[in-house]
UniProtKB/TrEMBL annotation:
This is CoA-acylating methylmalonate-semialdehyde dehydrogenase. Pfam families: Aldedh. PANTHER family: MALONATE-SEMIALDEHYDE DEHYDROGENASE, METHYLMALONATE-SEMIALDEHYDE DEHYDROGENASE [ACYLATING], MITOCHONDRIAL. Belongs to the aldehyde dehydrogenase family. The keyword Oxidoreductase applies. Gene3D superfamilies: Aldehyde Dehydrogenase, Chain A, domain 1, Aldehyde Dehydrogenase, Chain A, domain 2. InterPro entries: Ald_DH/histidinol_DH, Ald_DH_C, Ald_DH_N, Aldehyde_DH_dom, MeMal-semiAld_DH. Residues 17-481 form the Aldehyde dehydrogenase domain. Keywords: Oxidoreductase.
Amino acid sequence: MTSSSVPSVKLLINGEFVESKTTQWRDVVNPATQQVLARVPFATAAEMDAAVAAAKEAFKTWRKTPIGARARIFLKYQQLIRDNIKELAALLTAEQGKTLPDAEGDVFRGLEVVEHAASIGTLQMGELANNVAGGVDTYTLLQPLGVCAGITPFNFPAMIPLWMFPMAIACGNTFVLKPSEQDPLVTMRLVELALEAGVPKGVLNVIHGGVDAVNLLCDHPDIKAVSFVGSTQVGTHVYNRASQNGKRAQCMMGAKNHAIVLPDANKQQTLNNLLGASFGAAGQRCMALPVVILVGEAQAWLPELIERTKTLKVNAGTEPGTDIGPVISCAALERITGLIAKGVEEGAKLELDGRNPHVPGYQDGNFVGPTIFSGVTAQMTVYREEIFGPVLCVMQAASLQEAIDIINANPNGNGTALFTRSGAAARHFQEEIDVGQVGINVPIPVPVPLFSFSGSRASKLGDLGPYGKQVVTFYTQTKTVTQRWFDEDADGGAVNTTITL
Ligand code: NAD
């Protein structure tokens, strides 16, 4: 059901923000109040085709735009985002629920990618080897692919779209973005600012929708590459479908990240870090820490961990001092509370029950308070499934190696963290852990854009990550040129039928 009296979210096709002609709409809802903020269309097939066609046409000129001209757009864009960061964060909190400071962080982490896109001049340089044979040089061109597409999740509606279109466009591609239908408003404001910064018409297009929109992007013959961030189930579908259609695909997916705490760690720092990473953003981060393994004597820290967790404040993201805002939807709330019930049923010890918190003034919000289970085993549903809520599973191990074995047996490989004062333990962990992003006394080790996001195993399909150097490889075709020039007066030489230069 949708409300027709609220503003409608527009499509962006060929530089114009247009009203969809669809009959299918969905409400964008404030998760702290259930207020309907806007309605978002599920674009028609004709509208989606028009967006791809606009991107295809714009590619003809955009691919030849000088690299400096492309870079300067992103220099301007980063300034516009910076100037509007408070407004962007407020919009984000209204539709997504996270606290205002966290929403600013969401925008800021995306802004860092935009800053990096402004360095495209040095990022998109090829290589040259002189005299690979007599009078022959070989060099590479990193050429844009054409129309690229991006499909994004609800939990970072600023950062994740900014992982994608700035780098794709800076490389000389054109783009069709499909934001999460749950919170598209901040994404659309960022898109408006991109046009204001000078992204030409047709270079960036936006369609809205769900399954049909995603399938169209995976199938459309004029789309060359698809970037996806979201759940493992949908990401696997996108990877398979886009790959079968001959496209490049990169899919960053679900997670179950573990922290290991050794007894020699700095206790207060470690507990602070665990609280922030396990319960911040109501646990709705793919790099959250929903599992902690307490090793040896660190198991005695559990009571203090529980007491400290009780001090976290559950409230609307707009209220000062809030630690944990609402989860994205009523359905998410129901799923999370269902999983908590399942944990109890399967024998985990519910040390702290965050269900049905009292949040004065926000009785209708999708709130679940911080929840802690101890005695969790690898067979339990609360361990096997990504809860994506403020629920922490505490496990025990007798040694660092036993803890590493638990993590390596888990199929996911997005992120992990070790807390210790021992350099030798840290080095052993770094060597032996089979996870793509590793923190040593850093709870959420998301790499800055000088590097690339590098989740692994079941958390990722495709070998190249978003942003950083890897995404320049993803968004470009390496063309290798081998050339020789004959002197005017050289004779024709002899025919050579062997494989030589
Ligand atoms: P989701 O998979 O439900 O949605 C992601 C996108 O896919 C959205 O644009 C949505 O419209 C679309 N979609 C949803 N269902 C679909 C279907 N059946 N067929 C085709 N398309 C569909 O993910 P979400 O709930 O928005 O986001 C949370 C998930 O994203 C979590 O699993 C989280 O771990 C993951 N995530 C991963 C990373 C990472 O970098 N690894 C980062 C952020 C979020």
